[in-house]
Amino acid sequence: MKFSRLFVALMLSMALLFSFGCTSEPEAEPESTAPVAAQPADKQDLSAVLEDAGITIETSPIYFAFDRYDLNDEGKALLKVKAEILKQYKAISVKIEGHCDSRGTEEYNLALGERRAKAAYDYMIMLGVDPAQLSFVSYGKLYPAMEGNSEEAWSKNRRDEFRPTINY
Fold this sequence. Notes:
By secondary structure, this protein is an alpha+beta fold. Helix content is 44%, strand content 15%. It has helices at 2-20, 42-52, 73-88, 106-126, 151-157, and strands at 62-63, 92-99, 134-140, 159-166. Strands 1-4-2-3 form a 4-stranded mixed sheet. The protein starts with a helix and ends with a strand.
């Protein structure tokens, strides 16, 4: 059992090394630096590598009601799926990112985003995930998933997102 986990971790590490490679030319700067739906470039690459190895990481966000950080049934169900994968593959870690809609002050939204991320973090630990595999951060209203001042946009921005990484 230990050998197979070590083998999977080694294979994932090798796949990551080969998938990122080096370039001799600097990358062009993006035309827009707007934070809308911003995400690290490695999120999709890592998900593809993990899927190639037969590991599917559930990266779907969980959503929150206005001015709330308690987990709803749908969010708990998604967290259970994420927790089972993390318990099975100890070489994978996840950063939980708390986000808010555009209403409220920056300070208030940073605190609310942290409470949202911490709620998911605590729930996953309660489900048996090793705390060393988890971290959390709040981005408040800095990175909206959807621009706009409507309930549709606000509801998409009140969320936790999940960024998987591989531990070396």
